[in-house]
Design a protein that fits this description.
3-stranded antiparallel sheet
């Protein structure tokens, strides 16, 4: 995962670079594909 701050934004498209990342959720046996807004510090 690239360095920088990640904001969970769902399908939001705005400033910066948007991309999808797989995050572990729940008890760790589930994954969810979410959209994030990546702001490189």
């Amino acid at each position: 995962m690239p360095t920088g701050r990640y904001y969970l934004v769902g399908s939001y498209v705005g400033y910066g670079e948007t991309q999808s990342e797989m995050f572990i959720v729940g008890n760790g046996n589930q994954t969810v594909d979410v959209g994030v807004l990546w702001i490189d510090d």
